[in-house]
Sequence to fold (1872 residues):
Amino acid sequence: MNDDAFKYAERLVPRSYIDLARQARRSYEQQIRQIIEHRKLPEQPLDENIIEQWLNEIAQMDSNNFEGNIGVGEREGRIYSSLVARRHYLFSHGIGRSGDINAIQPKAAGSSLLNKLTNELVLDAIHILGLRTITHALVIPMATGMTMTLCLLTLKKQRPNSRYVLWSRIDQKSCFKSILAANLEPIIIEQIENNNYLQTNINEFEKQIKKLNQNEICCIISTTSCFAPRTIDNIQYISNLCQIYSIPHLINNAYGLQSTKIIHEIEQTKRSNGRIDYIVQSTDKNFLVPVGGSIVLTYDKELFDKLSHIYPGRASINPTIDIFITLLSMGKKGLIDLIQKRKNLFNIFYEKLLQWTKDNDECILSSKQFSPISIAISLKHISNEHLTELGSMLFTRRISGARVVKLGTKQTIDSYEFINYGAHSSNIQYSYLTVAAAIGIEENDIEIFMKKFDSIYQKLRRNENSDD
Amino acid sequence: MNDDAFKYAERLVPRSYIDLARQARRSYEQQIRQIIEHRKLPEQPLDENIIEQWLNEIAQMDSNNFEGNIGVGEREGRIYSSLVARRHYLFSHGIGRSGDINAIQPKAAGSSLLNKLTNELVLDAIHILGLRTITHALVIPMATGMTMTLCLLTLKKQRPNSRYVLWSRIDQKSCFKSILAANLEPIIIEQIENNNYLQTNINEFEKQIKKLNQNEICCIISTTSCFAPRTIDNIQYISNLCQIYSIPHLINNAYGLQSTKIIHEIEQTKRSNGRIDYIVQSTDKNFLVPVGGSIVLTYDKELFDKLSHIYPGRASINPTIDIFITLLSMGKKGLIDLIQKRKNLFNIFYEKLLQWTKDNDECILSSKQFSPISIAISLKHISNEHLTELGSMLFTRRISGARVVKLGTKQTIDSYEFINYGAHSSNIQYSYLTVAAAIGIEENDIEIFMKKFDSIYQKLRRNENSDD
Amino acid sequence: MNDDAFKYAERLVPRSYIDLARQARRSYEQQIRQIIEHRKLPEQPLDENIIEQWLNEIAQMDSNNFEGNIGVGEREGRIYSSLVARRHYLFSHGIGRSGDINAIQPKAAGSSLLNKLTNELVLDAIHILGLRTITHALVIPMATGMTMTLCLLTLKKQRPNSRYVLWSRIDQKSCFKSILAANLEPIIIEQIENNNYLQTNINEFEKQIKKLNQNEICCIISTTSCFAPRTIDNIQYISNLCQIYSIPHLINNAYGLQSTKIIHEIEQTKRSNGRIDYIVQSTDKNFLVPVGGSIVLTYDKELFDKLSHIYPGRASINPTIDIFITLLSMGKKGLIDLIQKRKNLFNIFYEKLLQWTKDNDECILSSKQFSPISIAISLKHISNEHLTELGSMLFTRRISGARVVKLGTKQTIDSYEFINYGAHSSNIQYSYLTVAAAIGIEENDIEIFMKKFDSIYQKLRRNENSDD
Amino acid sequence: MNDDAFKYAERLVPRSYIDLARQARRSYEQQIRQIIEHRKLPEQPLDENIIEQWLNEIAQMDSNNFEGNIGVGEREGRIYSSLVARRHYLFSHGIGRSGDINAIQPKAAGSSLLNKLTNELVLDAIHILGLRTITHALVIPMATGMTMTLCLLTLKKQRPNSRYVLWSRIDQKSCFKSILAANLEPIIIEQIENNNYLQTNINEFEKQIKKLNQNEICCIISTTSCFAPRTIDNIQYISNLCQIYSIPHLINNAYGLQSTKIIHEIEQTKRSNGRIDYIVQSTDKNFLVPVGGSIVLTYDKELFDKLSHIYPGRASINPTIDIFITLLSMGKKGLIDLIQKRKNLFNIFYEKLLQWTKDNDECILSSKQFSPISIAISLKHISNEHLTELGSMLFTRRISGARVVKLGTKQTIDSYEFINYGAHSSNIQYSYLTVAAAIGIEENDIEIFMKKFDSIYQKLRRNENSDD
Fold:
């Protein structure tokens, strides 16, 4: 309804009431205008219906939704099913053009606008979270693993003679496989143990760089967010090496945006002039949307453009829509609250587990400081055969995400062999259980977990004894 | 409502009425059961509400939707916004696992089931469309360009010493860039002109194979669906070469599933023992869903598995959901009707344009037989400066998809230079306009296009004369 | 997005593309503006997403949807469930005020606007359907029966000494019961048979008026839409009587808007100066929305106001929303097409049944001219016990709406006894089956009905013979 | 998906994962089964998606949603617009039959089931709220005013010679007009003042009964929920009179279910053998759904049946759907919490206003005990002309629901004149402001109200002084 329509509405409803409505509408239009103008999250959450209406408006800027549009091309944004059309808010053209994932589509001004704006809002969210020096953010409609591969292909293109990736071992298959998918060769740097937890083997990194021709190294991959007992990689040191030896540095920050500690480490690294090329993180793990997108951050326009340009063809706008809705639903306030709440619950979870280990002659196998999201506890008193049972008992009691890691598990990925797979290191002392206080967790989850886990543990431990 | 619930319902509503409802419900349950059992499209379209309800049921098989589920991992399928949750039918876990895009997720039986089942339904749809010998279909949640890159990376992994891709020129940037993104080197084989249209330069292909070490050739890329005057590549000949010289063959069949002619060519090629490794097609261009997915077809389990395995990590389930909904909404009947309708409308469009060229001393620049989707017409009487105007006049009159190709356009992609970019060949005689009768087009679109285009053309042509 | 927002969008997407979007948006805003300005249906259907977006905009004019609204009353339009909120597009205040169902609510400018506008659009639809002289239309959120009662209460209020309603028998319980609910006394005027069908007993009407004190007659109720063999009441004659004797005339036109014949009869009646006070029709039966609303038409502002004023308190806006959506989804063109299609299908159905009666020695028991929606056929050769079976066999074979009427059925409503209930007359000769070609019926329905019915009929008729 | 479908799913996804899903599904099916079996609210809220899925299942029990249903009647539940169909979950047949609003529809087993079940769930909710002796609850798809009329028509039918309604004055137009709509004559019993608030004039009631022939009295209407300074009617006394003189008693309990005090009064009245025939309450005001429905409660099957039977024809199922969704969304726990929260906020609001009156030399004009929802405060220091301004200033500052009542307002409804309309009494001493802490109010609303109101008040009061 434009101003004229409002005027004619006054013939049906008295002007004073229409005026109040007009004023209410204006205040919502102001909010929208401000978001487009300043490209910053609103302070407070936006109502769902406002977000939805705005999305509909933006979608109507795409040619497939123009009244009377005639399509004689091969890709006209037609949608067969109205269910599908609805769930995509009539967005059909995706993002990007053949040349660039961040390019404008002439046919799809709305999709292009949504894409550009969302990248800017994500950048603002990143700043709010504490990475204040980041200058570019790009939502990529592929999950972190494949996006890591894309970053590696981009780096490789700049270093055509390189073959190797120095990789600080992290037992997430997708991170390791992202190297293989790019047809690069991983050099695995094992974690070393320190005081019950694992940390980056910094000496080995330097040794490997010196051993290999540094031009043959495509990049170093460090990982910040990981499961205890592994800790945040020593990215300050690694990025220093990268700086000194002119080797690109790719940070696998999969779910690190939710941790103020990890954010702080990255920010410090940058401020102390360490080299960071790309930082990759998941949209689902950090912003509570369905799996399917990731965010690449850089400090450099050229790196940003190179990544955009390498992407061949169009891509889904879906993760962009999800992030757009979610960030506006949170507002700055909601985002900060969520982060704070997670931190508090991590502390609560840690204290509960610490007490539990004391009560049961087990021990915490992680650094509270350097594993700010997950916590590992030893399972000394449970034998290997019962460990499998423990895992499956948790699963059938609807506990998801708790991982039992058994000493001695072997795994081969392509031709690469790993000892103690899952534990990030060949040298660990105990089998253990690892759990996380990730964003979105509720205190109730922690309480029920403690109860259910303890009951299973006690039962199995009693069995151990009776087995004797 | 289970059987018990129905029984208790009889206390509120007489049994005979409940019985009729029970029977109706059973007939819909049978349909669902049959689809899961036989993994074939239903003959007739399924109602939207049945599809939606089924999707909801499947989503409830994922652990994040279990009542009382406790998540203590880092990725628990939590969704912040209820808008986002709704539009994804509560699916949150994506598809695949770290190791394989087609692997089962223990946490997400529903997503896994949907993924497996949809791949099977797509395979059935492919059979219905005429590719009866295909044995494996995989929906990939990336558009065709990036999926081509993934196929290239997979092939390259098997042929670690290869560097080159023999590429039959097609002026779609995303196809060309998919080679560059994989860090491979394209060898461009220009189209040759024949009788006003362009065709595969088969001699040059053989020449290049002989010139290069065949082990250094990663694969040949042929393209079937393209804009006139370029025609379907001579894939029978190319696949023969691939067979003889043991070179992988990747077919860029972006929007070729909609053409019975193209389908026929591929099927014939396979039946005559030509080599085809992967066939890549878009979900949006063939099945009328939003941009974001593609389908890879193979005739070989090993190739299928290799492709699944190379994908690092999880991926979006979105294109899978869209295809699932769309195929069930169509049913076998709807799919066949759609294809038949397109074919008829192509013939109508061709006849109209043929008549128009006769009336205006222009000519058709395409083979009706070998360009079964698009049609090119010469624009001899419009000068270059007016050609630009023509394009923009069409655009502002809401004609989308019609392309004006001007003689002499140059384009550089990375370090590669193209003459007459857009025309697929350095040697064309006329500037021209190309349009398509793609799936989903309506007769009305063709009529309005003819009227609007003719009016613009006549106006510009008069201007030409008056400019003299 | 207001003009400023569009301007800022130009910083993200080039102006020329934004301009095209702006233009597309403007054309949709014009449509909306025109509908509010002229209060007429659009010529062509409006897209669902446009309708939905408009509804959302209107709802935001209600105070419960204002940002920062503070409610300290007892009725603040709060909605507990977001599912409920969504399905009502956030409309919560209903329509009307304590004093008048058509009054403006200061708190709810949007609801009030929607109500006023929809009543105007309904009036336009009524004019399009052929009732060109109607001046007032009111959507009432109660189905026809209860709305008839409301009309009767309104008339009774004007005629406080009246007690009787002269009622041309129609065997729809809700029509008869609407009299009883108003605590008035029905005088039943039986139909008379003429040439195999039933028609208004006009002599009896006049006789009764003369017999009773005319001031004691609250009104006459005639019925236009009914099941054959009953025909449209002779409303020209009845309204003449009403004019002469100053008795209000209430027309039960439940599903008559779909018939051009019935429309014509009413229009003729009015043009020949017959008296018609209120015409009541169903929203669901005429406009294909769910049960729950009705439309009252009058030719007189005072009668319209009296009806509005009698309604005590607020009422649901739901039927208004449904009608608003439906009329805009149809557009003028869609509405006319629907009516025309029904007429054609009625003729087809009639011809098929006529042929069938000839083939089976049965006969048509209705006037093609005066029963323009339904058709009755004799069931001479089926005995009474088998008639019941016939009905239930149709039902279990998912034929709904076909009615088997058995000679001799008795029914008592309150203290009133009816012979041959269902047949509208004490004097009919045969048991029969009656079916309708109502709005929304498809040719396919007719074909399948003929097949299924014939098969059941033949089976039962064979049984008759074998029973002998 | 039935059991067979699950079995075939095991061919696609390992059995152990399917088993977990099966188990999760079973636990949700149990919940549904229990609700149907016991017809009681679940203890805990049900998830929205479970509710929605269940609604879809129930809707599929209606014949219009049967696959292959053939409709040859005049009312086949067809829906033109898919938007409309969706928002009604495909329910189209409404509730009731011609004869009875609570009757089963053979065509619509699902709608019938939903109707019956919802009435039972409402009854359970009523018991939870404290009216434990109520035996029948009926959701009527009309708002309270019209439903009061329906009750009056039902009572009048049983007492054909009655003409009067004894009515304890309450200045809600819809209550008064419900009497006029039923063509009955109100006898107005003014409130009397007592200690700054108003209460039932019990002597006048008895006087009027004695004065009139008691058979001419159709019923007495008392009101429980009202705006201060009026208090809950003395229903114990009134129902006693009704018992003694055999006069029906209709309680207007519009928004009384939210108050434990009002509930207690009704329960006590019943337990002390007072006569209560029907209790009418709004669905929107008590259960936070959109306007459009009401609930009638009785203690007597015959009264319940009479009310059901009088309703002529079908009716909307909408309020039933809304209540069904809302009650399941609340669960028993949510409902109790809501009531408790309201009570607490009322106390907070009262204390704040009390303090405010002390600070400003105004006074509370209501009984905390007998006006348990709303509070009135004097506005001694604001002159009449400024009072109007106060109201409109509140309105434009988005305070809704606060009512300014000016001494001396006159109002005529039909031929009845009221002095001090809005104040429920001819004799009040001050103009005043009345506000409510109704269900759904938030503490934040109270705080912002206090701030905004005080600021307006002070400004106007300063103006008063400067006017001098």
